[in-house]
Write a sequence for this structure.
């Protein structure tokens, strides 16, 4: 009689079996395509308590078990001031899924909640800084965040529609404030719908955004103000006409033609198509 698997084993098996095409293969594709993990890396896998980061932890756990490239991973949870229920949910899920988390406390929510404007921006900046600092203290050279494919395309569209710029999200970048540290995004090629499906299939419940700002705001009002929610709905409506819309938007970020852009910036310096246009005109003369 076959041995019955526990919830951790079922969740791990579903990644490799049922969701191999939608989760495991895109994860491996991102690691390879963007050279995210090298021999000797010590990676701080940053877990917020949501579905994305917890799945990322399981993916990196599995990769560590089978990889021919030796690396280490520390599963890092920063408590920015969670309420008791959210803190307990994170700890319970980590135990349930067999993720050996290292937890450290900060006062980020308290600080962000005390400012009058842009608390979300301040919170995000402080979170990143604390994570880099703790990771470096633990001897890590990289932090891994759980941004997925939909985060990538939504952020790009939001920049165009609300920020008047075309700006993407990189799968790997060097820290400007912490020398020798990098940020990687191993979930870069995984669609959010696949993550949600994995969590539901395994009857897993994770915390959503748990900051004091959103807890204190009227939920309906906050969602109406959310530009990301509007962008999600726009993509969803377009997908009804073109089911490949997410794939095409993501692929377009790998097929940017600078020759057809009116202006662009690189290294902080602005360039115009007229530079090339005028050079070509001189050559013809």
């Amino acid at each position: 009689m076959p041995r019955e698997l526990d919830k951790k084993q079922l969740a791990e098996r579903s990644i490799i079996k049922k969701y191999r095409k939608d989760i495991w293969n895109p994860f491996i594709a991102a690691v390879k395509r963007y050279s995210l993990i090298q021999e000797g890396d010590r990676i701080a896998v940053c877990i917020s308590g949501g579905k994305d980061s917890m799945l990322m932890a399981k993916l990196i756990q599995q990769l560590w078990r089978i990889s021919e490239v030796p690396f280490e991973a520390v599963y890092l949870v920063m408590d920015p001031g969670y309420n008791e229920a959210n803190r307990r949910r994170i700890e319970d899920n980590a135990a349930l899924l067999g993720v050996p988390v290292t937890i450290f406390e900060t006062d980020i929510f308290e600080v962000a909640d005390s400012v009058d404007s842009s608390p979300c921006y301040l919170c995000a900046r402080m979170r990143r800084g604390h994570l880099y600092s703790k990771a470096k203290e633990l001897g890590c050279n990289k932090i891994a965040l759980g941004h997925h494919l939909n985060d990538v395309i939504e952020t790009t569209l939001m920049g165009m529609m609300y920020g008047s710029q075309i700006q993407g999200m990189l799968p790997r970048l060097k820290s400007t404030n912490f020398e020798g540290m990098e940020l990687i995004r191993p979930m870069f090629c995984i669609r959010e719908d696949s993550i949600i499906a994995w969590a539901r299939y395994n009857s897993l419940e994770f915390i959503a955004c748990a900051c004091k700002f959103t807890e204190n705001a009227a939920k309906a009002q906050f969602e109406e103000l959310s530009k990301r929610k509007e962008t999600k709905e726009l993509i969803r409506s377009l997908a009804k006409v073109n089911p490949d819309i997410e794939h095409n938007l993501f692929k377009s970020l790998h097929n940017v033609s600078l020759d057809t852009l009116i202006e662009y910036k690189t290294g902080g310096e602005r360039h115009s198509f007229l530079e090339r246009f005028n050079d070509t005109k001189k050559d013809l003369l």
User: Anything to note?
Assistant: Confidence is low (pLDDT under 50) at residues 217-221. Residues 7-254 form a domain with the Rossmann fold fold (CATH 3.40.50.620). Residues 61 and 73 are 8 Å apart (CA to CA).
